[in-house]
Write a structure and sequence with these properties.
Order of helices and strands: HHHHHEE
Membrane topology: Multi-pass membrane protein
Subcellular location: Cytoplasm; Nucleus membrane
Distance between the termini: 29 Å
Pfam families: Tmemb_18A
Strand content: under 5%
Low-confidence stretches: none
Main location: cytoplasm
Mean pLDDT: 89
Helix content: over 70%
Organism: Electrophorus electricus
Oligomer: single chain
């Protein structure tokens, strides 16, 4: 009876972990799309800024003023990183890695979706 209870506890933990990781996926996808869009905008703006012949002739701040698309997208990208977008983009893998660290002490692990992996017990000789 004790093993049935331990097994049900493991199943409940696995269910909760997979539920939590799956709930993070939609938000993670949105943050990834935002990061991709802003990165592409910044790269496109940077290309236009660098190939403009006037960029070399005017001061740095004047050239930024002449290229508002690049300036705004670059400031937005920097703001997103200060706001922690780099953590939000990889949140499910951070949770899984932390769980793996804790579960290693119990000869268990988990995959990136939160499914538990039971490892064989080490044989002590």
């Amino acid at each position: 009876m004790s093993s049935e209870r331990e097994f049900s506890d493991l199943k409940a933990f696995e269910r909760r972990l997979t539920e939590y990781v799956s709930c993070l996926q939609p938000a993670t996808g949105r943050w990834r799309m935002i990061l991709i869009v802003v990165s592409v905008c910044t790269a496109t703006g940077a290309w236009n800024w660098l190939i403009d012949p006037d960029t070399q002739k005017v001061s740095f701040f004047s050239s930024l003023w002449n290229h508002p698309f690049f300036t705004i997208s670059c400031v937005t990208l920097i703001g997103l990183f200060f706001a922690g977008i780099h953590k939000r983009v990889v949140a499910p893998s951070i949770i899984a890695a932390r769980c793996r660290t804790v579960l290693a002490e119990y000869n268990m692990s988990c995959d990136d979706t939160g499914k538990l992996i039971l490892k064989p017990r080490p044989h002590i000789q």
